[in-house]
Amino acid sequence: MRLIRYGLLMSKEPQSFGEFLAERIRMYYDSDVDFAAAAGIKSSSSISRYVNGGIIPKVATLEQMAPALRMSARALIARAYPVTGSTIDGEPEPAATPAPPAFHPLALELDRLLRPESRVPDDKRASLTALVDSLIDPYRRYLRSGRKTV
Length: 150
Prior knowledge:
- The protein is an all-alpha fold.
- The chain has one domain.
- The protein has a two-stranded antiparallel sheet with strand order 1-2.
- A hairpin with a 2-residue loop joins strand 1 and strand 2.
- The longest helix has 24 residues.
- It is globular.
- It starts with 16 loop residues before the first helix and ends in a 5-residue tail after the last helix.
- The N terminus is likely disordered.
């Protein structure tokens, strides 16, 4: 199990747009339906098609989704439609795959312990997962609320 659901660790390997979108949705929302409602998208089945790689959203839809994903429309469009060397409004396009962020040592250790291939027994892994969920849940709710710190 990756720590994506905790918002602590993003995968390091390049991703498809659907995988990227799924990670961002899981960071801030409990379900595709919640995300669709927050983004003002009428059909949550469209979100499923985007996540599963069936279709890439139109630019207007990406612009509508970006605030709900807490990112700029420009960055989201660049992820959906990567074109090297192009420009948008005369500015260089942002990199389609951002550099991996620096990880907190605790996040790396939790990732190692919670992976299915770890030697930690399943029952202990489930207990650790429940503990981490209970500790992080208040912060997850805060992030989903959209409040900004001053």
